[in-house]
Known about the structure:
There is one protein chain. By secondary structure, the chain is mostly helical. Helix content is about 75%, strand content about 0%. The chain has a two-stranded antiparallel ribbon. It is globular. The two termini are about 35 Å apart.
Amino acid sequence: MAFLESKWGWLLLVVLGLAFPLFTGNDYHLTVMSTAYIFAIATVGLNLITGYTGQFNLAHSGFMAVGAYTVGILTVDHQFSFWAAFALSGVVSVVLGYFLGILSLRLKGHYFSIFTLCVGYIMFLVIEKWDGLTHGTVGIMGIPAPEPIGSLRFDTPLALYYLVFFWLVLGMWAMRRIVNSLLGRTFVAIRNSDELAEALGINLMRNKTLAFMLSVFYAGMAGGLYAGFVRFIGPGVAGVEHTFDMTMYMIVGGLGTLLGPLLGALAVPWLTQYLQFLQ
């Protein structure tokens, strides 16, 4: 694990990701891996608020749904380009996350988790019932694929795989910069002890809210990618079971580490694929 967390280890992982399509047998495997990458981005975001800051946010899948529905609504109902809608998916999630963060982060421990569980279920109900905005239980169909960038087209599983992989690499690079910075050490200090962190002069509310906003930004961007990749979304994307899946990825890989949630998010989906023969 120490080697993988070094510069050469990260480079090896990037090379393996680039070479994966050369060794896979079909488009189905590309689809499984691309979906795993998308959920890995969201899981890395959840790990920032849970693993590094010590606040277990059970509404995380709701924010992923906010990003997905931002892309779906803007592209299908308002004819935005995918890239404009995708850019707004993270912004909308952050704005919503700010207001929910300053409200929920006044609570601590289990109370915060229970509150966010309720918030996540309310987000699911809003998506399911607000037919005029979200299309209700029917969902949003016909979400356009990402528009070409110059000669780069994203109309094949291989092209979409590399697009998702690019955002995963960019997201991991940014997260590595965050957790290794003074800000990242501030989050860890808050996780270890609110009282000690406050005694050191750390503004608890401001830093917890910032961690929450960064976390849901990753969820929103992952949701936007998911909408452009799958091209259909329904209320189920906001289900709390997805948050529990991401929690499992973090625990399996290593909670509060940078590499662990990524490896967990990639390993567990493939394990479930290979266990499908068990009836």
